[in-house]
Design goal:
By secondary structure, this protein is mainly beta. The chain is built from six helices and 34 strands. It has a 22-stranded antiparallel β-barrel, surrounded by four helices. It is globular and about 80 Å long. It starts with a helix and ends with a strand.
Length: 712
């Protein structure tokens, strides 16, 4: 909470100081040089804007995608999606190709559980404890990119996908905007944004508060979730100071705090007796979870002739506190655990690019992260007899606290070689180390080839060796022996350490410009893994625990298209995936004995494998009006004994209509109306069965939302 208060205070100070395209590319055109008649203040401001844009272009050349598959959406697409900038961040990412929806806001890219790397303005954002709340906001993004495939050597550790957020700043957002959204499920959301220039300082700040009655996916298909309120506070600050035409220093500060009720599932059958009580209405359970996170990133960027570099230091704190309903949880589960997890991360990152000559550009860098994670639990359990039956109605309290340091660091070097204009070959490698529960390292070669036989056609093929350590905060830490002879004793007592995943990854694709504004792309991938990492929820506390499959296979493909011409724009994505694993090789105590025996000798589908995933959308602008519609489809995630079945497929349609009303030269009002799940489709994301799934979760029923925003 201390970091949260510091971030909030920093934002208020910035506000006091300041008082007085669809796909946005790295080569955005700078603002024209001001005419001699421009006032000195205007000329200075425009000079800062031009320098900012030139440094943005330089930054992109330090860590480019270099043959990886990259999808980018800008302000128009972000505004056109359901709820626009008010949309939760995970809903924004769901509109990218190959991204499958799961409960608790989780995202699965190309058939993998998580393993996503988040970057803000091309700087790594350290990991946090995954919870329900969306720490990042669509609101403060100017454009968002998803990079997948065979990533170049600058991207390590989390390699399923890189989500790169380029934030709003004082050069692109000048003025103020206050907005209020109200709607279904008791939704009330207020937000405020302010940006501008003060001399050489560019600033942007945003703040929001959200309350609604569907904070976590409903456990039933009802339109009225039971015990599912949430309150969420978020803050973000961007500060950038132009030192000279070739350098700047940037500070990013973000913070959030969220409180959640855990939704109830009526009609559950009591299994245990607590004292004299053996009955309980499961609709009256009172479990809650609190989540807090904050981060600070300080970056210095410099360009000197053919050398460009960026150096950053960062800090991030994240915590989750789960509070059980002691009596109810004991009666239904025989276990009631108060769980307190937190992680503190500190580190530095350095990336540099040097244009050696017309054919070769050398890039290299390093990253170092120190983390400290704590897991504190206080668990109420009942003793059991030799047959596993409850032996006493008086619960026992077992305290099990753990803390662990982890160190993750890596180095990379690569060469972008252009033997001739149409061909680019990027080759290099990285050396990564993990010192945590085990000490591991790997040298990982990377190779990407991009060929443009014609101006409208681009082909790429790549190979990457990946090294993915388990998240420190996700590795289950516990003393199994403490729970022997209780209702929390595992069926299996083996607990091999969770290790890093090692994988070979192959990717190939082609993009084609059909005509002006219309582009089509096809991409395919194959991944072979050893010690495949996965995560699941094992118990009532809604936190994820990591484990390994001995081997894994993942392959699939994506078809994408986009059209943007005049007032009309549209996009469509279709992805096919196949992800399997065999034989659990770590944290074996998490699993039931019958599941463990089966998986030991069989390949099974991963619980987040989804055969088909699709998204599409279109928007049309007419004068001050804009209408849009989008569509999401999933063939269903896995369920049942060792994931042998799937939940039914689903498709949802969303629509929005908005209008901007000009009041004066500098003021306007924006009004919009959104409908989420237009046809009120009742669909199930999880049914409570499958590997690492504890309870059923349903997608949101139809919701109506109205927003009014005042720009001044």
């Amino acid at each position: 909470m201390k970091q949260f208060l510091i971030a909030s205070t920093a934002m208020l100070l910035v506000a006091d100081i300041a008082a007085g395209q669809d796909a946005v590319t790295a080569t955005a055109s700078p603002t024209p040089t001001p005419s001699p008649s421009a006032s000195p203040g205007t000329a200075a401001a425009q000079s800062v804007v031009v320098t900012t844009q030139e440094l943005d272009i330089s930054r992109e050349q330090i860590v480019p995608s270099l043959g990886a598959t990259r999808y980018t959406v800008g302000p128009d697409r972000l505004d056109s999606q359901a709820q626009g900038e008010n949309a939760p961040f995970n809903q924004t990412i769901l509109r990218f190709p190959g991204v499958a929806q799961d409960s608790f806001g989780q995202l699965h890219v190309r058939g993998e559980h998580a393993n996503l790397q988040y970057r803000i303005d091309d700087v790594l954002l350290p990991e946090s404890i995954p919870g329900f709340g969306q720490e990042l906001e669509t609101r403060f993004a100017d454009n968002i990119s998803l990079m997948t495939g065979a990533l170049p050597a600058q991207f390590g550790f989390r390699t399923t996908g890189v989500i790169d957020i380029h934030t709003k700043n004082g050069a692109v957002f000048t003025g103020n905007e206050a907005s209020v959204e109200v709607g279904s499920f008791d939704t009330v959301m207020e937000s405020f944004e302010r940006g501008g220039l003060v001399g050489r300082l560019s600033y942007y700040v945003s703040q929001s508060y959200l309350h609604n009655g569907i904070g976590i996916e409903n456990t039933t298909g009802s339109a009225n979730p039971i015990h599912d309120d949430t309150d969420q506070h978020k803050f973000f600050t961007y500060l950038s100071y132009i030192i000279d035409d070739t350098s700047r220093v940037t500070l990013l500060v973000g913070a959030n705090h969220s409180d959640f009720d855990i939704p109830n599932n009526p009609g559950q059958t009591p299994m245990f007796t607590d004292g004299t009580r053996s009955t309980f209405n499961s609709a009256k359970l009172n479990e809650t979870q609190a989540e807090t996170s904050s981060y600070e990133i300080l970056t210095y960027q410099k360009k000197v002739d053919d050398l460009s570099f960026q150096a950053s230091i960062f800090n991030r704190y994240s915590s989750i506190l789960f509070r059980p309903d002691n009596v109810g949880d004991l009666i239904f589960n025989g276990v009631a655990s108060r769980l307190d997890r937190d992680i503190l991360s500190n580190g530095l990152e350095f990336d540099a690019s040097y244009k050696l000559n017309d054919e070769h550009t050398i890039r290299g860098g390093l990253i170092f992260t120190e983390q400290y994670a704590t897991i504190n639990t206080a668990t109420l359990v009942f003793p059991v007899d030799s047959m596993g039956n409850q032996a006493s109605t008086t619960p026992m309290r077992i305290v099990d606290n753990h803390g662990k340091y982890g160190y993750f660091y890596g180095f990379y070097l690569q060469d972008e070689w252009k033997p001739f204009e149409q061909l680019t070959i990027n080759f290099g490698g990285r050396l990564d180390f993990e010192n945590a529960f085990v000490n591991e390292n790997q040298l990982s070669p990377r190779l990407n080839v991009v060929y443009k036989p014609f101006e409208s056609t681009t082909l790429h093929v790549g190979y990457a060796r990946y090294f993915t350590p388990p998240p420190l905060e996700g590795v289950p830490q516990g003393t199994i022996a403490k729970f022997a002879g209780t209702t929390n004793a595992p069926g299996i007592t083996k607990d091999s350490p969770v290790t890093a995943e090692r994988a070979h990854y192959f990717d190939a694709g082609v993009t084609q410009k059909i005509m002006e504004g219309w582009n089509v792309g096809v991409d395919g991938f194959y991944k072979s893994s050893h010690s495949l990492l996965d995560e699941g929820q094992f118990g009532a506390a809604l936190v994820q625990s990591s484990f390994n499959y001995e081997r894994g296979r993942d392959y699939g493909g994506e078809l994408t298209t986009s059209y943007d011409h005049g007032p009309f724009s549209a996009y469509g994505n279709l992805a096919y995936g196949w992800a399997r694993g065999t034989s659990w090789s770590s944290a074996q105590f998490l699993f039931a004995p019958d599941e463990f025996r089966f998986v030991k000798h069989h390949w099974i589908f991963l619980d987040h494998d989804q055969r088909l995933t699709a998204s599409a959308g279109a928007s049309y602008t007419w004068n001050d009006w804009k209408g849009s519609v989008d569509f999401l489809y999933g063939s269903g995630l896995h369920r049942g004994f060792v994931n042998t079945k799937t939940v039914p497929d689903y498709g949802t349609v969303n629509a929005s209509l908005q209008r901007q009303i000009k009041i004066t030269e500098k003021t306007s009002v924006k009004v919009r109306f959104d409908v989420v799940n237009l046809f009120d489709k009742v669909y199930e994301l999880r049914d409570g069965s499958g590997i690492g799934v504890f309870a059923p979760q349903f997608g949101q029923r139809r919701g109506f939302y109205g927003t009014i925003a005042y720009d001044f």
